[in-house]
Amino acid sequence: MATAPDQIRTRKPDWLRVKAPTSVGFAETRKLMRRLNLNTVCEEAACPNIGECWTQKHATVMILGDTCTRACAFCNVKTGMPQPVDPLEPEHVAVAAGELGLQHIVITSVDRDDLADGGARQFVRVIEALRKNAPNTTIEILTPDFRNKADEAVRMIVDARPDVYNHNLETVPRLYPTIRPGARYFHSLRLLERVKQLDPTIFTKSGMMMGLSEERLEVHQVMDDMRSADVDFLTLGQYLQPTPRHAKVVDFVTPDQFKSYGDIARAKGFLLAASSPLTRSSYHAGDDFARLKAAREAKLAKA
After folding, report:
1. Is residue 5 part of a domain?
2. Residue 13 domain flag
3. Model confidence over 12-30: pLDDT tens digits?
4. What is the mean pLDDT of residues 77-93?
5. Helical segments of 134-253, H only
6. Tally of structural domains, the chain
7. 165 neighbors 202 (Cβ within 8 angstroms)
8. Does the pLDDT of residue 1 top 50, yes or no?
9. Which segments cross the bilayer (predicted)?
10. Residues comprising the binding site for [4Fe-4S] cluster?
């Protein structure tokens, strides 16, 4: 049977090929997540690094359910009417952090436009549960944009003092109407800026997907916009089409091109830049957090 034009998938280059997960550590991590009724962005977003990360018992927990109220063209998380917020979720996240022995944990969520606070209070409850039950675990959060409720939502999360506040710009402004239609570029940029205004000691982080037809100068402009908002850490990785229904990959950015972007980002003043085809927001997040702290200390020592 012939393949319909909209079902043709572009073949991945060799540098994007990863082995299927088969390790004991992978199976144990999956079993733990199921037992605690926790969702992970690793699974829901079909992350290519899941085998490596779960083998090392590193997982990015996705709170507030597995159903998003938006339908971004790049995202594999399902869309619809979400379930009620699970009151046991914060405790379960803390238990998972303890059982996995995590030194650093990344917490993200679906968009919850149906909630009055966008889900911000659940982020706070998770941070509080982790501080109480896993006090040695550093906390990185990756939040949605809290559209129409950002100031209050961001303020309550910053008051809970996560170690890293991440919010991804995802792509260049020109592509927002097709790739991220429910969001607004400058709203997301202002959210990151607001975090720094409220607490300059919290590290801020943002990322972009590459290969969606963005031009090099557009990427440079986004870097400049992030630096104007005092973003500390930039991640750049290759976009991969989850299903034929999602936005197509326009081009595959080479490892050398990613290295060049990383060099430019560091020259523009980011404390840290992770730029490679397989880079994702939470990939090697624990090691990166240690490098981020060291980079800030080195910068302060020079001042």
Report:
1. no
2. no
3. 777 666 665 556 666 777 7
4. 93
5. 150-159, 176-179, 185-198, 216-228
6. 1
7. yes
8. no
9. none
10. 42, 47, 53, 68, 72, 75, 282
